[in-house]
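In line with agreed milestones, the collection of sequences with tokenised folds has grown. A representative record is reproduced below.
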Amino acid sequence: MKYLMLGAAALAIAACSQETATEPAETPTDAMAAGDAEDGMNGEEHDAMDHGDMSASEKLDAVLDAQPDEIKARYEYRHPKETLEFFGVEPGMTVVDILPGEPGWYGEILIPYLGPDGTLIGADYSVEMWGEFGGFANEEFLENKKSFNEDYVAAVEAAGGEDGANAAAFQFGSLPADLEGTADVVLMMRAAHHFNRFNDGAYFTEALEDINAVLKPGGIVGVVQHRAQEDMPDDWAVGNAGYVKQSHIISLFEDAGFELVESSEINANPADRPTAEDVVWRLPPSLGTSRDNPELKAEMEAIGESDRMTLKFKKPE
């Protein structure tokens, strides 16, 4: 594999803290709590996969079938095959995975699926934005975040072996010039609420600028995000509870020059209808409000994971 080593000198790998539902402003992202940094196949297992002359769909099926049980357990709610195909992700592409983990839940799928002709780029929040979280984001955590680029590339290398995707990484606000115009698809999986909730959305504006810059003309942005009902109060749906209105996300992207190509209900869950007192982390896999309440836990598990919008945007040609 070829690897692009970008960013600050390597420090200790960043720790992922568990979210709580009672202090959403001081918790890491739901992507972390949801297992995006879960361990998956190791490099030898990836190397052992022979995809031959499979079609893209057949190759994705084979990759998904080969994943460990802890990753497969999320298929019911994350629908990775349908989602990746909806966004048009294919082997050999260059794909940006926002807030990925190391290499992350989707990373474990994308590394063998993109293959040695493809590239997986991890994109993390800036250290400045991480500092907005407070709590777990202490001085040591923020110092560790400075080595995200090196840590991510090393994690992809360890997971991918010889037949995995190439790797690169960047942090928002610091996109290297050599990555500009290289990406076919950018994936923003359950990461939009944090961009939106801090600094009056300024981090979202910065992220959209980098997303536009990293994409090729005609490139795709795929968004999966916890969805607030449109009749919920705007101050609740800003993202602190994990939920954002679909209309707001569409407006932000269109104002930044992207075209909404299509929306899908692939990741919808009509059973999730939060009130203004609820946070997304009450639901699986976090179950942050019911760890010591078996009855409430059963109620949350019956709802399942969050209702999610799935939106496909395009950068103009």
User: Anything to note?
Assistant: Confidence is low (pLDDT under 50) at residues 1-48. Strands lie at 94-98, 119-124, 166-171, 183-189, 215-228, 244-245, 259-264, 308-314.
